[in-house]
Specification:
It is built from 15 helices and no strands. The protein has about 325 residues and is mainly α. The longest helix has 26 residues, at about 50-75. The relative contact order is 0.15.
């Protein structure tokens, strides 16, 4: 059941800290759920384990708080929305995460998705503890569409620090090409424009360009439905993860392998849901087999992008008042 917290009045500092705590909790909840093919409390990868995600979540909190502060400044007309420097916030999140753990890239995609959420929540003019999610979505659109070339350069630097797997190469403004940042600044190409190019093959970029359509239209409603039906958070997260994966082939898997493999895995996720997932014996058996099949491929079949989207949807739930 959704248990909304009280309607406490908050000042600016309290509001920015509250927003950052909501996002931190969302990451911790997502990382703790036993999602197939992902790092969790029991299973990790060769160099990246559960504790690395915990450390990263805590380390990123200060960056989210900064984003919220800048969003509040926008709502008070102290700065324009293009001045929030969301690219810098993403970069600082990655730098902080990198400094506090030795497991490599943990939450780059999550940082890219949650940084605009932090700013947008700050922009949502309310003195109450809970946030109106449609308003947050409206503000997110303004944040991402107002990004600058400097934001794009900061993102490129963040990616180079994180060194994510499955990055590949691009014929346009490749992050591995040292000339790309010079061209971005010279031609004044915004971060939003960069993501528009990448949105054809990357779901996180597509979320930015399409106003977080998977997060708001699929993942968040699914979580709310599941949590309203029962208080089983693990079931809600895992089933929403499967639902998102079934409908949207994971683009990290597609880049590491191929699009056909990603589509096949989505079909398998759908089959697990049809068996009942965590709510039936058959579903649990199917989920376990699915998990083992994903883990037996040298991390090539890790649905990491789907996990990033689930963390973002959980952030919306917590901002709206959900408490575990």
């Amino acid at each position: 059941m959704i248990c909304a917290s009280g309607s406490l009045k908050m000042n600016v500092d309290e509001k920015s800290r509250h927003i950052s705590k909501c996002l931190e909790l969302a990451i911790l909840l997502e990382a703790s759920a036993d999602k197939p093919g992902n790092v969790n409390r029991i299973n990790g990868f060769e160099c990246t384990r559960y504790e690395h995600f915990l450390a990263s979540a805590v380390a990123m909190t200060s960056s989210f708080e900064l984003g919220a502060q800048r969003g509040i400044a926008v709502s008070r007309r102290e700065i324009g929305v293009s001045a929030v420097a969301v690219g810098q916030i993403i970069k600082e999140s990655v730098v902080n995460a990198d400094a506090w753990q030795r497991g490599g890239n943990t939450l780059l995609g999550t940082a890219i998705l949650l940084s605009p959420i932090a700013v947008a929540a700050g922009m949502a003019s309310t003195e109450e503890e809970n946030f109106d999610i449609p308003t947050v979505r409206e503000k997110v659109k303004a944040v991402v569409e107002s990004t600058t070339p400097e934001d794009a350069v900061n993102l490129y630097e963040a990616i180079r620090i994180a060194k994510p797997g499955g990055l590949g190469t691009s014929s346009q403004l490749d992050v591995n090409d040292s000339n790309s940042t010079d061209r971005i600044l010279k031609e004044r190409i915004s971060l939003y424009q960069i993501f528009k190019i990448a949105s054809e093959y990357d779901s996180i970029s597509s979320e930015w360009i399409n106003n977080y359509h998977i997060t708001f239209d699929t993942a968040y409603p699914s979580l709310i439905q599941q949590l309203t039906k029962s208080d089983k958070l693990e079931v809600a997260i895992v089933h929403t993860f499967l639902k998102v994966l079934a409908k949207n082939p994971d683009t990290l898997i597609a880049r590491k392998t191929n699009a056909e493999k990603a589509r096949r895995i989505s079909s398998e996720a759908e089959e697990v849901l049809k068996l009942g997932g965590l709510e039936t014996v058959e579903g649990k058996e199917g989920l376990n087999k699915f998990d083992l099949s994903l883990r037996g491929s040298s991390n090539l079949l890790n649905p990491g992008t789907t996990a990033d989207i689930i963390a973002t949807a959980l952030a919306l739930c917590v901002l709206a008042g959900y408490r575990p």
